[in-house]
Amino acid sequence: MPSCIVLEDRGILAVSGPDRRSFLQGLISNDIERMSAAEVRYGALLTPQGRYLHDFMIADAGEAIWLETERARLADLQRRLLLYRLRAKVALAERPELAVAAIFGPGAAALVGLPEVRGAARPLTGGVAFVDPRLADLGVRAVLPRAEAHSFLKALALTQADFAAYDRLRLALGVPDGSRDLVPDKALLLESGFDELNGIDWRKGCYIGQELTARMKYRGLVKRRLLPVRIDGPVPAPGTPVMAEGREVGEMRSARDGLGLALLRLEALAGNQRLAAGAAAIVPTPPGWMRLSEGAASPGEPAG
After folding, report:
1. Best exposed site among 148, 189, 287, 301 by fewest CB in 10 Å?
2. How crowded is residue 225: how many other Cβ atoms within 10 Å of its Cβ?
């Protein structure tokens, strides 16, 4: 039986107005024109230098586009988007009356009438349900009025989980959790799995930070990756250096219960080197979805 949890750390920023699609299209890493009521997408807002600022799920809510993102950073996302509004006919507003729930485990998608295809979506009364657009294995998100969230989940006869259970699933799959794993103004999308996790559309036109992102892909400039790791010993704090034979080869990000994410130099994966963070041994466990050779240009691809 699937489990569920209301994700209190997630919130909604609504982008409304007649220019909402064209406004977002020129700013974020995914293609808004390919989003529909039947497909939610995943994307990011970057600095002009191609550094991470915010990531979010992007849902078509009829008269508005909902950006489902970190609740604690909603105001910052709104402020940064408003810098680009100029004469665009758009309005941005937080929607605190909406809750975000996660439903995860075998059969989660079918339980809410969705195929197990990442991004697949359907409207709910007052909201939307969708398979996580990054990985279907992460389950389903449901955005709905806060007053109805618990009754909706109860009607599905789901097992109530705690945040730790959902966090362990995420860590085991190697998926970053916003600014817990992606340092604002510093992290790069291709180091953080956005290509494989459906967060970049290479066919769309320009967006803020697109030049560096494309250059990294087509010139093979990816030298580090955010990787899931197994931790043998005390769980290191975020930012703890990862060492290999006295050399610093990366640093820890979020972790719990023997699982974590670490930003590692790819060279540290060669030769079965022993890695350590603080008093713990660290063993990288690259997931099946990850392409560690990404960044190398294929024959015929543009060089920049």
Report:
1. 301
2. 25
Closest CA to 263 of 218, 232, 222, 220: 222
The pLDDT tens digits for 100-149 are: 999 999 999 999 999 999 999 999 989 999 999 999 999 999 999 999 99
Q: What does residue 78 show for φ and ψ, rounded to 5 degrees?
A: -60, -45
CA distances from 70 to 17, 76, 178, 192 (A): 23, 10, 7, 17
Question: What is the side-by-side strand order in the sheet with 10-16?
Answer: 41-46, 52-60, 64-70, 10-16, 91-94
From residue 43, alpha-carbon distances to 69, 133, 148, 252 in Å are: 10, 10, 28, 24
- Tell me if the pTM is above 0.90: yes
Average pLDDT over residues 260-279: 94
What per-residue confidence (pLDDT) applies to 59? Answer: 98
Q: How many C-beta neighbours within 10 Å does residue 265 have?
A: 16
The pLDDT tens digits of the residues spanning 45-87 come to 999 999 999 999 999 999 999 999 999 999 999 999 999 999 9
What is the β-pairing status of strands 64-70 and 91-94? unpaired
